[in-house]
């Protein structure tokens, strides 16, 4: 978790403080605390808080000492701090130096959801240092017990005004959170963004970056020549649409730490992950790759990240309980399925949008993934699935669509996706005539494949129910009929006859013979389950 403004009010130094306005902002995360007093109100407004810049989710302490009688300037400061992403303002010495808090400040705080906190009124013995010490201790203790910076930063940026949601803001948040300087370049090593920690290091990095003739290899750290006790790490970021970025992390080893003790692999991985997210969501071409990050978070079963991204994109992921996986697009065109997906995705989405309120779609690892809320009806869902398959089979007759429904959470989504990835080809062999699958069919095929991999004893046990067919001299013919009956024809004699190019009466005779040998009709439950497993195993053994 991360420290919020509301958490701070439970600290000893702030328990007697009063929230005057902006209560909706009590859930904002606080990254630091600062004191803001100035001899020149113009500098206070325009110099320290320039328009359109992010300052760092701080809680600010002030007594408005230099603008005690200027309510207009007080309001201007509150508005500028709120626009810059500050979390709130703590007013000291109200009733001592500042006579009272003007109503206009409170109304503005409510309008901006900017928390306005007033320390106990009329008390001269209040100290800034007590609140600063209390707040920073709380923040440090929280960070020591919380190594998960990705959801924290996504949460912080999701509540910022739209104009502050940028790659540079993400880098500033990461830098403040980790005490690391970040330099982002494109694949040609052209500098794109630079955020230094401490900020005074920025001109040094800009001047000295050009000195490097050879950088550390991807994923490696080495000593930095121009930083005392400094290291530099280099990481190549895989961005959307095949783009790459080069990220450099500059880090100064604190005094007293062991030689070579730098950033942990876990922290480094999180830094690179959140920077990659920032570039993909708020960099150039963000509209094309932003949803990819949400889909990636869903498939990777990262619920915290998924929810933060969904908040940013305004998508109700709680309503998503279904996933359609389309596979095989464009394979006939020498593997150019990615191009086909990019070209046709929005059109294909219209099928899903015709039967559900929420639809999120993206290409992922060569498949088209569509996430849907519950369809209006099962009939409408199947009609749209059939329409989609008919539309795209012209591009590839081997196209398949797998429907995964009743998904409860991201864990269910990931398991369904992995099942599809691992067992689609086996399922195509078991059901050669099918182009539309239910995830339950792939799961069953997967269990049969796992059974086979356990060895001969398990296989023989699974095939035991077919032993009785050996009493008939047409064992293979009956086995073929049984397999077609259960796996291809939906227990329809007419369909079996059509598939096997036989007269319907011949099929009826074979089913009658199967019933005599088995001692029950092939479609009788629960006996059918063991027969179904046996014929699936048989087909899988044909394609080891």
Structure description:
- The protein is of the alpha/beta class.
- It has four domains: 5-144, Udp-n-acetylmuramoylalanyl-d-glutamate--2,6- Diaminopimelate Ligase, Chain: A, domain 1 (3-Layer(aba) Sandwich); 149-283, GAF domain (Beta-Lactamase, 2-Layer Sandwich); 316-449, 2-Layer Sandwich (Alpha-Beta Plaits), CATH 3.30.70; 455-542, Arc Repressor Mutant, subunit A.
- It has 20 helices and 15 strands.
- The protein has helices at 5-8, 41-47, 71-83, 103-112, 128-144, 149-158, 167-178, 202-208, 265-282, 286-299, 303-313, 337-353, 378-392, 410-430, 439-453, 456-462, 475-488, 493-500, 504-518, 527-542, and strands spanning 18-21, 32-35, 58-62, 88-91, 115-118, 181-186, 191-195, 220-223, 230-238, 244-252, 320-327, 359-364, 367-373, 400-404, 436-438.
- The longest helix has 21 residues, at 410-430.
- The protein is elongated, with a radius of gyration of 32 Å.
Q: Determine the strand fraction and express it as a percent band.
A: 15-25%
Question: What is the β-strand count?
Answer: 15
Based on CA atoms alone, the radius of gyration comes out at 32 Å
- What sort of overall outline do the alpha carbons produce when their principal axes are compared? elongated
In short:
This protein is of the alpha/beta class and 544 residues long. It has four domains: 5-144, Udp-n-acetylmuramoylalanyl-d-glutamate--2,6- Diaminopimelate Ligase, Chain: A, domain 1 (3-Layer(aba) Sandwich); 149-283, GAF domain (Beta-Lactamase, 2-Layer Sandwich), CATH 3.30.450.40; 316-449, Alpha-Beta Plaits (2-Layer Sandwich), CATH 3.30.70; 455-542, Arc Repressor Mutant, subunit A (Orthogonal Bundle), CATH 1.10.10. Helix content is 46%, strand content 15%.
């Amino acid at each position: 978790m991360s420290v919020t403004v509301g958490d701070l009010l439970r600290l000893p130094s702030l328990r007697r403080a009063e929230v005057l306005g902006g209560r909706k902002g009590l859930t904002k995360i606080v990254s630091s605390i600062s004191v803001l007093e100035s001899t020149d109100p113009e500098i206070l407004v325009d110099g320290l808080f320039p328009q359109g810049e992010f300052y760092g989710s701080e809680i600010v302490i002030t007594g408005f000492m230099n603008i005690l009688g200027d309510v207009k300037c007080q309001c201007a400061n509150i508005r500028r701090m709120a626009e810059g992403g500050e979390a709130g303002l703590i007013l000291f010495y109200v009733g001592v130096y500042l006579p009272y808090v003007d109503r206009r400040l409170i109304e503005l705080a409510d309008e901006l959801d900017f928390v306005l906190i007033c320390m106990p009124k009329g008390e001269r013995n209040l100290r800034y240092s007590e609140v600063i010490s209390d707040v920073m201790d709380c923040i440090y203790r929280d960070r020591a017990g919380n190594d998960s910076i990705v959801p924290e930063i996504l949460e912080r940026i999701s509540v910022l005004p739209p104009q502050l949601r940028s790659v540079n803001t993400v880098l500033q948040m990461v830098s403040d959170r980790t005490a690391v300087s970040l330099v982002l370049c494109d694949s040609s090593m052209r500098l794109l963004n630079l955020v230094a920690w401490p900020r005074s290091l920025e001109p040094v990095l800009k001047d000295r970056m050009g000195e490097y003739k050879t950088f550390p290899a991807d994923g490696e750290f080495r000593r930095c020549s121009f930083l005392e006790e400094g290291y530099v790490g280099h990481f190549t970021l895989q961005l959307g649409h095949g783009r790459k970025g080069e990220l450099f992390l500059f880090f100064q080893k604190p005094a007293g730490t062991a030689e070579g003790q730098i950033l942990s692999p876990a922290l480094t991985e999180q830094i690179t992950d959140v920077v990659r997210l920032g570039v993909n969501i708020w960099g150039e071409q963000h509209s094309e790759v932003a949803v990819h990050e949400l889909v990636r978070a869903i498939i990777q079963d990262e619920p915290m990240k998924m929810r933060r991204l969904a908040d940013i994109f305004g998508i109700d992921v709680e309503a998503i309980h279904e996933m359609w996986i389309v596979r095989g697009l464009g394979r006939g065109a020498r593997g150019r399925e990615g191009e086909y997906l990019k070209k046709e995705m929005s059109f294909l989405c219209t099928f899903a949008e015709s039967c559900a309120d929420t639809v999120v779609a993206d290409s992922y690892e060569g498949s088209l993934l569509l996430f849907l809320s519950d369809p209006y009806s099962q009939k409408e869902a199947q009609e749209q699935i059939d329409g989609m398959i008919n539309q795209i089979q012209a591009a590839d007759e081997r196209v398949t669509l797998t429907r995964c429904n009743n998904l409860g959470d991201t864990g269910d989504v990931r398991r369904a996706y992995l099942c599809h990835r691992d067992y689609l080809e086996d399922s195509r062999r078991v059901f050669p005539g099918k182009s539309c699958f239910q995830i339950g069919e792939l799961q069953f095929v997967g269990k049969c494949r796992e059974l086979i991999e356990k060895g001969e004893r398990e296989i023989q046990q699974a095939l035991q129910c077919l032993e009785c067919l050996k009493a008939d001299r047409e064992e293979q013919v009956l086995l073929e009929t049984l397999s077609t009956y259960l796996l291809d024809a939906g227990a329809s004699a007419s369909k079996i006859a059509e598939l096997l190019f036989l007269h319907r009466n011949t099929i009826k005779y074979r089913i009658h013979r199967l019933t005599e040998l088995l001692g029950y009709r092939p479609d009788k439950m629960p006996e059918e389950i063991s027969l179904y497993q046996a014929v699936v195993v048989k087909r899988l053994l044909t394609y080891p």
